[in-house]
Amino acid sequence: MRPPGGHVARTLVYGAFPPELRDMWGVRWSRARESEYRAALRSLRAATGVLPERHRMIPYAYEALRRAAA
């Protein structure tokens, strides 16, 4: 089972799962891959802090919240 997207997307998806699940699926995981995962999370957290709210959410969710607040 392989999620869509490139290497970073796969690293983010698989990194969020517990090691037992990765093992069960046959996903190779290493210290280097764990470091990539943690670095990607740090980057996402940093970017989230400076992006306007409308860019932090998928468009449908943002519009739904905007309509609910009106």
Tell me about this structure.
Helix 1 crosses helix 3. It contains five helices and no strands. By secondary structure, the protein is mainly alpha-helical. The radius of gyration is 16 Å and the shape is elongated.
Distance between the termini: 42 Å
Radius of gyration: 16 Å
* Helix-strand pattern: HHHHH
* Helix-residue proportion: over 70%
Strand content: under 5%
pLDDT < 50 stretches: none
| Structural class estimated from helices and strands | mainly alpha
**What's the count of strands?**
0
Strand count, sense and closure of the main sheet? none
Put simply, the count of helices is 5
Write down the overall geometry.
Answer: elongated
Mean pLDDT: 88
Please tag this protein with its features.
70 residues; mainly alpha; 5 helices; 73% helix; elongated
Topology:
Elements: H1 7-15, H2 19-25, H3 31-50, H4 53-56, H5 59-69
Helix pairs in contact: 1-3
What's the quick description here?
The chain has 70 residues and is mainly alpha-helical. The chain has helices at 7-15, 19-25, 31-50, 53-56, 59-69.
